[in-house]
Amino acid sequence: MAGVLAADPTLADFGKDPLWITIVKAVMLFLFLALGVMFGVWYERKLISRMQHRYGPNRAGTFGILQSAADAIKMGLKEDIFPRTVDRVLYLLAPVIMVVPAFLAFSIVPFAPIVNLFGVRTPLQLVDLPVAVLFMLAMGAVSVYGVVLAGWSSRSPYALLGGLRSAAQVVSYEIAMGLSFVAVFLFAGTLSTSEIVAAQAQTWYVVLLIPSFLIYVICMFGEAARIPFDLPEGEGELVGGFQTEYSSSLKFALIMMGEYLHTFTASGIAVTLFLGGWRAPFPISLWEGANQGWWPVLWFFIKFVLTFSFVVWVRASLPRVRYDQLMSLGWKVLIPVNLAWILLVAAVRNVMVNDGDKTLGIGLGAVIVIGALAIWMRFATVNQRRKEAKKAQVEAEFEELSNEPAAGGFPVPPLDLPHYRGVSRP
User: Fold this and answer.
1) Beta bridge partner(s), residue 114
2) CB–CB of 2/280 below 8 Å?
3) How far apart are CA 69 and CA 76, in angstroms?
């Protein structure tokens, strides 16, 4: 990768823009996200349709590209229905709580280094903070309140169950997702998104920190409430989840927009923290001007679209997991693996960077990896024995019940066919 250029922004470059430039960047970000939602809906429909050998939207406009605009107009003009027993204030406030934090979370994503915008040299990023990544996590956690309030204010058992699922789901994935960023912080030495991108000038963190990246990708689907972790909706079990009592009106459109914006934010953070941000991929990075001017916007957009395409591909390929499976994955797999990986990264980096002894660092890393594998194999063996014992117990009980004369076809008793057909018994 090309080295750090003079145009790479730092925290010192923010807060110096004229007010009108800040307003222009905020409007540009809003338009990008608002139009991106409409285009993303159309793109997801077309991509899934092609994967299923269908055409998808193809009537409204060229290639059906105006279908999303038609849907948005339809939902904006439909009658706004209020169920009789809802809490009207929270019922109206919940969709707003879902949308606004998603917009704010994307404000820390850098699209390019310092560029010339209407004659003013400014970073192509709305805002950056010393704790920018923590700000993103906080906005993701706040949006969960919108889901919970939407379910509670609807006064519907199905909507309430969807809201409670979201509250439990955020505990399962949010801890693991936060821990997946720790290794990035250790390597970059900062929580600023612009400086994290600058720290990836030589090697992207997807290469150095592949376990952290894989864990984040898994948690990303929980953050966006997308299949296979769209449990708050769960239309197969909950009719429609937390948004059951929201008619197809503007409120429902805001809920869907909030979910898409969280998908965009998760994709943007993945690009920023692990895929080099706006930096050009190899071998394009060998070109001296690849990371200067407005070219980085193109590289960021390509990475962003590919990441979003991966999210769509997973939705079309995997089924929804059960509630207990998500909780088990988060608490029994993702969090322990994350903690072990952070221990390894911290120990190796401290020895190799601070002490300068690479051999000792590699040896220490190997010892930690072997120890973690030994612990994992121990727990896996115990868990396998428990499963086999449980299976043997169930088979024994089944065999015992099957041998009873009255058991018949356990667990479904046999039908008395003559009586079932209306024939009187002898």
Assistant:
1) 123
2) yes
3) 11
For the stretch 241-257, pLDDT in tens is: 787 788 767 888 888 88
CB of 160 closer than 8 Å to CB of 154: yes
CA proximity to 211, closest of 92, 365, 100? 365
pLDDT for 425: 46
Q: What is the dihedral of CA 137, 140, 142, 144, to 10 degrees?
A: -140
Contact 197, 133 (CB under 8 A): no
112: part of which helix (H) or strand (E)? strand 112-117
The residue assigned the tokens 């939705």 is 315
The token pair that represents 13 in the structure block: 């470059």
Q: Cβ distance 46 to 56 under 8 Å?
A: yes
> Which tens digits make up the pLDDT trace of 318-332?
888 877 788 888 888
Cβ neighbours around 328 below 10 Å, total = 14
Label the pairing between strands 120-124 and 112-117: antiparallel
How many residues belong to the chain? 426
Do 158 and 239 meet the contact criterion of CB atoms below 8 Å apart? Answer: yes
* DSSP code at position 277: T
Six-digit token pair at 76? 């904006």
Answer whether residue 101 shows pLDDT above 60: yes
Produce one character per residue of 231-252: b if its CB has 16 or more CB atoms within 10 Å, e if not. Answer: bbbbeeebbbbbbbbbeebbbb
Cβ proximity of 149 and 48 under 8 Å: no
Residue 3 has pLDDT above 50, yes or no: no
State the pTM of this model.
0.80
